[in-house]
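Handover notes (outgoing to incoming on-call)

Open items:
1. SDR family oxidoreductase: sequence verified, structure written out, both below. Nothing else pending on this one.
2. Nothing else urgent.
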Amino acid sequence: MQVQGAIALVTGANGGIGQYYIQGLQQTGAARIYAGARNPDSLKDIAAADPDRIIPISLDITDEASVKEAAEAYSDVNLLINNAGVGFNQRLVADANFDQMRVEIEVNYFGTLRMCLAFAPVLKANGGGAIVNMLTMLAKVNFPLNASYGASKAAALLATQGIRAELASQKTLVVGVMPGTVDAGMSKHFPPPKVAPEEVVRAALQAVVDEVEDVYPGEQAQKMQAQLLQDPKAIEKWMAEMVST
Ligand SMILES: NC(=O)c1ccc[n+]([C@@H]2O[C@H](COP(=O)([O-])OP(=O)(O)OC[C@H]3O[C@@H](n4cnc5c(N)ncnc54)[C@H](OP(=O)(O)O)[C@@H]3O)[C@@H](O)[C@H]2O)c1
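SDR family oxidoreductase structure tokens:
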């Protein structure tokens, strides 16, 4: 589908990458952009840049009522961008912080799933449309220093595949975006290599136009994906070694 003229909804629009999604949608010519945040006041400046097109909305993806309300109120959406996510840099054994692990699962897996389920009928009514789920390469190979985040995103990756299969008959494209480290948001202070957030957004929106299901934005993600296809054990061991270094 074309992003130009689309009616988009972005979750976590006040976050690092979320703000670039808003910009990318503006530049690509989306007709309306619902910018979701738990605190819509945090979107004032973003919306002020283009008040006719950017509409701040209140949305907590872990709250069933909030998501249901959004699906009812914004029934013109044909492009859903599930960008909201959390990561606490938790190791599984050494940290064993079940409270934080539960939040990661609630937001990254159940939250994303809840949004897909609530908006599936909306997208169907609007001709099929598309869903973009922000995943990560850490959904495909575990990074032990951020292991529980990766596990929650792996669940979201498998959910993305399941939803894709189920929504194929209503012609909804379901895109999974798997960057490595992005130079924004939760990885702002991480060391390089990092991919620019503009590049992640450009690749994700282009995938919607080209109907590409799996997107690996940036050199780091592309190299990792190539290695995973060639020798998955080697990359698992390489990531594992970072626990002790
Ligand atoms: N940065 C990276 O290196 C990287 C790499 C690969 C994938 N990703 C993924 O990209 C997405 C955006 O990450 P980011 O780096 O931009 O992180 P970020 O700056 O921390 O932004 C995360 C966003 O998610 C929102 N959020 C958290 N819990 C929510 C909830 N219950 N309901 C609604 N919104 C909620 C946050 O809103 P509040 O202000 O309300 O907390 C914030 O807007 C995430 O899914 C992340 O996993 C990031």
